[in-house]
Amino acid sequence: MATVLKPVHSYISVKVLMVAPSVRVPDTLGQTLHQLALANGLAEKGIEVTLLCRYNKNSVDKSNFSSNLSFVSIVNPGIPFERIIFTKHAYQKVIEQLKASEFDIVHDRGYIFAGSGVQAASELGVKSILQVDDNWMRSELSATRAARLWPYHERAIRSCRNQIELADGGFTVSSILRDQISEWNPKARKFSVIQNGYDEDLFNSKAEPLGIKEKLGLSGKMAVFVGALGPWHGTDELAEIAKVNPNI
């Protein structure tokens, strides 16, 4: 009598330690909303994600999160120069997590003087990727005058360079940003570009036109900027587009 073999579906279980010390949860800042969306999106796809951040478990409603998403909390000093404190604590926590459990990837959300995730992963032989959401140096120069001073500026650039060097790979949110950070370390030229902040269903040749030009009474060519504008975020990119496309 013949044996009937049923197909066996095997699922590869992936564990990701997502290191984001600069992120507070809960919070209304864009970085928090974006990081939670990314972490929960991966978790909903079946990836086991542990998000290391400044997490307040007493103020979070976890009912909207995937069961595959868990949190590890670090200190949230709430004082000047807190970045030094929570970055150091994050490094200690990452070491603890990597020694206590087998993670496949360390995903590090970078910033100036950061690198807790990629540093610990490099020391313990775990693969890592670096997330770059903005031009860290440009943001730093806009946030503090001290960043223009030589010792501070030199150490900041070194921090950017080292984080890229330690990571096994990485991604940015635009090709322009990738070009910019490649000036810190040419290794970044191999980083992937994952566009952030737009609806793919609207930005393709088959999408129904929204009639924006007609509503605004515009004619001719038009450039559409998708993203957030702020003192240092987006405005320079708009200026660059205008220079390259003087007829728009």
UniProtKB/TrEMBL annotation:
<feature type="domain" description="Glycosyltransferase subfamily 4-like N-terminal">
    <location>
        <begin position="30"/>
        <end position="201"/>
    </location>
</feature>
<dbReference type="InterPro" id="IPR028098">
    <property type="entry name" value="Glyco_trans_4-like_N"/>
</dbReference>
<dbReference type="Pfam" id="PF13439">
    <property type="entry name" value="Glyco_transf_4"/>
</dbReference>
<protein>
    <recommendedName>
        <fullName>Glycosyltransferase subfamily 4-like N-terminal domain-containing protein</fullName>
    </recommendedName>
</protein>
<dbReference type="InterPro" id="IPR050194">
    <property type="entry name" value="Glycosyltransferase_grp1"/>
</dbReference>
<dbReference type="GO" id="GO:0016757">
    <property type="term" value="F:glycosyltransferase activity"/>
</dbReference>
